[in-house]
TrEMBL record:
Record protein name field: Acyl-coenzyme A thioesterase THEM4
Cell compartments where the protein resides: Cell projection, Ruffle membrane; Cytoplasm; Mitochondrion inner membrane; Mitochondrion intermembrane space
Native organism: Gopherus agassizii
PANTHER family according to UniProt: ACYL-COENZYME A THIOESTERASE THEM4
Keyword Membrane: yes
A cellular component term, taken from the record's GO annotations: ruffle membrane
Length: 228
């Protein structure tokens, strides 16, 4: 499906050339918010989602939609618009068209607390040890959640450091809460921390700290990321 739906664009030739999806084309030609309930969500995931939606009513929390194609949804805004309050996310990595097999998730932002939480239900494609989520998939969802939080406070950022302690394995199909917050901002550096817990709060699955760096505004993203 991926091969059929995505137009790949080769940008540049030779050293440093990258092959990546054309950001103007959504994976199936249709823009879709991937962070919405579907039939694969367990009752626990639905209940938690409803609780957070309830907390959105007074404006304390905001639901963050997730599109693989930002173009239709952020008209006039450059990729990773700087200092956006909150905006649709661009997730080619974690959005899968088959429901329930990979990352099922929904993110909510608490702007005043500079906190981003992610309700996460890992599917079978994320298996590492038998029956449990692969540590790399846990790192991905942590990086995505923390990164979204850093984006909220600082605009265009990249992960410079991510340190994770894995405390208890995450059973596939279970629901965990990835809870991240900004601890400190020093110039271009954003320090964050994160805990991943079961929804009853009894099991600590992982804890992490991260450093994100706000990209130099005088350089384009291309320059910033080119080989030096
Ligand atoms: C709609 C869509 C939303 C989308 C929402 C987006 C969410 C994003 C989530 C996914 C994010 C990723 O996976 S990003 C992919 C993984 N990350 C990467 O590939 C990053 C690779 N690294 C880099 O490109 C670069 O090293 C940067 C950009 C991180 C930093 O480069 P730079 O901008 O030139 O900055 P530089 O001068 O080196 O460093 C600035 C300051 O930070 C310090 N510093 C730099 N790196 C480190 C480090 N690892 N540990 C400690 N300190 C460090 C330096 O000492 C310096 O301190 P001082 O001297 O000033 O005191």
């Amino acid at each position: 499906m991926w091969r059929n739906c995505v137009r790949l664009a080769r940008r540049g030739l030779g050293r440093g050339a990258v092959l990546r999806p054309d950001p103007t084309v959504s994976r199936c030609g249709v823009s879709k918010d991937y962070a919405l309930p579907n039939s694969s969500w367990s009752q626990g995931m639905m209940d938690l989602y409803s609780r957070f939606l309830e907390m959105c009513k007074d404006g304390t929390w905001k639901r963050i939609p997730s599109y693989s194609n930002s173009v239709d949804h952020i008209p006039g805004k450059a990729f990773w618009g700087v200092h956006s309050k909150y905006q649709p996310q661009l997730w080619q990595t974690i959005n899968m068209d088959t429901e329930g097999v990979g990352f099922e998730y929904a993110m909510f932002l608490n702007p005043s607390e500079k906190r981003m939480v992610c309700l996460f239900q890992p599917g079978p494609y994320l298996e590492g040890p038998s029956g449990f989520a692969h540590g790399g998939s846990t790192a991905t969802i942590i990086d995505s959640t923390i990164g979204s939080c850093a984006t909220f406070v600082a605009g265009r950022v990249m992960t410079a450091n991510l340190s994770i302690n894995y405390r208890n394995p995450i059973p596939l199909g279970s629901v965990v809460l990835v809870d991240s917050k900004v601890d400190q901002v020093e110039g271009r550096k954003v320090f964050l921390s994160c805990h991943v817990r079961s929804i009853d709060g009894q099991t600590l699955h992982a804890e992490a700290t991260a450093l994100f760096i706000r990209l130099d505004s005088t350089k384009s993203l291309q320059q910033q990321m080119s080989c030096q």
